[in-house]
Write a structure and sequence with these properties.
Elements: E1 8-11, E2 28-29, E3 32-33, H1 34-42, E4 49-52, E5 67-68, H2 78-92, E6 98-103, H3 113-123, E7 128-133, E8 136-145, H4 149-157, H5 164-168, E9 173-178, H6 192-204
Parallel strand pairs: 1-4, 1-6, 4-5, 7-9
Antiparallel strand pairs: 2-3, 6-8, 7-8
Length: 206
């Protein structure tokens, strides 16, 4: 791999409107917060690890990770988190060329996520590698060149680009498909019904 265990940032700032508000990553699955499951999946694959969230960082204090806020104001959405990840990674792990981003509500991330994204990026001479499953892209589960941070800042501030796929369409993009049996590794818990399904998956994912 071009990066030895690249840095990773968990995008943990979304509001759980479909679950009554609050921080989705702090909801419990199998007796632990969603975020704890995400961290457990990522740590063996990555170098330094941080959370991207706005507001009071102390609510994530139990996880003992840096909490980085968006670096552009009034530009809500995942691209602001991706930019914050790029800018943080540039100083937190200066030898890294790429940073991984994932959402904070995907407790079953594949254990080969970084390896397969990086392999596809190199094989296809791509700039960005994005995860997919069941024919659907997961735009924020991606390996990003840290060198794109200035271009992304310009896209956000000067061009008002908010959609992740609109930005990534400008670059060579590798799309890496994962199988969805016995479950989709990118399953995310958006509703109380999803939480119940995640409990069922977790019970069998030993």
């Amino acid at each position: 791999m071009s990066d030895v265990r690249p840095p990773a940032v968990i995008l943990a700032g979304g509001l759980a409107r479909r679950m009554g508000g609050g921080d989705k990553p702090l909801r419990s699955i199998a007796g632990r917060p969603l975020l704890a499951h995400v961290i457990e999946r990522l740590q063996p694959q990555c170098g330094v690890l941080a959370l991207n969230a706005n507001g009071d960082p102390s609510r994530f204090g139990r996880f003992a990770l840096p909490v980085i806020a968006d670096t552009v104001q009034a530009f809500p959405g995942p691209l602001a988190g991706v930019l914050a990840a790029m800018e943080w990674a540039a100083t937190a792990q200066p030898d890294a060329q790429h940073v991984l981003t994932v959402p904070g509500d995907c407790p079953f991330l594949p254990r080969d996520l970084v390896a397969r994204l990086d392999q596809a990026r190199r094989a296809e001479n791509a700039e960005i590698a994005v995860a997919a499953s069941a024919g659907h892209l997961h735009p924020v589960i991606a390996l990003w060149p840290i060198a794109l941070r200035d271009a992304l800042r310009t896209a956000l501030i000067d061009e008002d680009i908010r959609k992740v796929e609109r930005f990534t369409a400008r670059y060579r993009r590798a799309e890496v498909e994962w199988p969805v049996t016995p479950f989709d590794p990118f399953f995310n818990a958006n509703t109380p019904e999803d939480v119940a399904e995640a409990e069922r998956i977790a019970a069998g994912d030993q």
